[in-house]
Design brief:
- The chain is of the alpha/beta class and 368 residues long.
- It folds into two domains: 176 residues, Rossmann fold; 176 residues, Rossmann fold, CATH 3.40.50.
- 42% of the residues lie in helices and 17% in strands.
- It contains 16 helices and twelve strands.
- The strands form two sheets. It has a seven-stranded parallel β-sheet, with helices on both faces. Strands 10-9-8-11-12 form a five-stranded parallel β-sheet, with helices on both faces.
- The chain is globular and about 65 Å long.
């Protein structure tokens, strides 16, 4: 029997969507389905093409202008691909992809929402109301699912579900550098307790609160250092904040580090200070490296750390400082207990096998 084609439609291949595309394509492995992965934006890249295990990876290389408005050219390109490959169904990541996919008639679309607030705009509410007949919406956490349900009360609850992000933890762990090699590669201190934050330098990630918290905690953590891995529009402002606090010798900006997850064993604690998250892939990567986490209690973060560790209220540097001190002072026995809890959490919720089973329960309940 010929395999059926499934379109996985992504806005681009920037984080976390390359990881997301790879994982959703992997859910089709050993089934009677093949993945056709399409990135709307981004130059064709053979390395990306090789990294995604799919029957075909297509780069539409759309301009910002083409991604705006009614997206007529892109919709026509997807329609032609549908005519060529006869997609069984479409998995569309982010609203742009959902909008384009639902322009096609009589094909089931599963729209994946990665952040809250997707449907606050009246125009989006109206579009889904009138053009979402064949649409099921998937939140990457229960919090995102509930946010979508609240925004779209006219959609039946069973048409708005949740499916956690997943990672191939076995493959990911095999790619991690050991602690010594990772420290050497990034010039990470050998003698200090090293906190790390990974993410865009953006208001949503709230590194400003993290920097303030580190400043508050430092008197009780004399052998601590903070590393921030990422790039973005707030880089100058955050560096200025560090200078005002006179912490240049204690806080290091690593910039954007390709495949940063491979170096996570260089550090002692992973800190995520975001004000909003869906279900952060960066936090799951820290779990894979068995790196003790600290995370804000925003949307998807809360679910990711539940039964693993406590979190802190968004934007509260004092609470975060207390947790950083607690991690700094944690005994090896307590650290090992925390690592066991996070591994249990991974196995139950975020492995490829666990999420794949739930994926097929959503897209084709008859298979279960």
């Amino acid at each position: 029997m010929n395999a059926k084609n499934v379109l996985i439609l992504c806005n681009d291949y920037n984080a976390p969507f390359l990881s997301v595309a790879k994982e959703y394509a992997s859910y089709l492995n050993n089934t009677n389905h093949d993945a056709i992965v399409v990135f709307l934006k981004g130059q064709k890249d053979p390395a990306i093409e090789n990294e995604v295990s799919a029957k075909k990876v297509i780069f539409l290389e759309a301009t910002n202008k083409e991604l705006g408005g009614f997206k007529g050219k892109l919709t026509e390109q997807i329609r032609k691909l549908h005519h060529q490959y006869q997609f069984q169904f479409i998995v569309a990541h982010r609203y742009r992809a959902i909008f384009i996919a639902t322009q096609l008639k009589d094909i089931q679309v599963f729209g994946v929402c990665h952040i809250d607030g997707n449907f606050k705009r009246l125009s989006r509410k109206l579009y889904i109301r009138f053009f979402g007949k064949n649409l099921t919406l998937i939140g990457v956490s229960k919090a995102i699912r509930d946010d979508v349900r609240k925004s779209l009360p006219f959609i039946k609850k069973e048409k708005i579900v949740h499916l956690y992000n997943s990672l191939d933890f076995e493959t990911l762990r095999a790619s991690l550098l050991d602690r010594s090699a990772a420290k050497k590669a990034l010039a990470v201190s050998e003698t200090e307790y090293c906190f790390v934050n990974v993410g865009r330098l953006h208001e949503d990630k709230d590194q400003a609160t993290l920097i303030n918290a580190f400043a508050l905690a430092l008197p009780q953590m004399p052998q601590a250092r903070l590393y921030i891995a990422g790039a973005g529009r707030l880089e100058s402002a955050l560096k200025h904040q560090v200078e005002k606090l006179n912490l240049q010798e204690k806080i290091t900006f690593l910039g954007k580090v390709p495949e940063v997850f491979r170096y996570l064993r260089a550090f002692d604690c992973f800190v995520l200070s975001s004000i909003r998250e869906g279900l952060p892939v960066a936090l799951l990567e820290a779990y894979a490296a068995e790196l003790p986490p600290i995370a804000s209690l925003c949307s998807g973060n809360t679910e990711a750390i539940e039964d693993v560790t406590e979190g802190f209220e968004v934007g509260h540097p004092e609470q975060l400082a207390n947790l950083m001190i607690k991690r700094y002072e944690m005994s090896p026995v307590e650290t090992n207990q925390l690592i066991r809890r996070l591994n249990d959490k991974l196995e139950l919720n975020f492995t490829n096998a666990a999420v794949k089973a739930e994926f097929w329960n959503i897209v084709d309940p008859k298979t279960n």
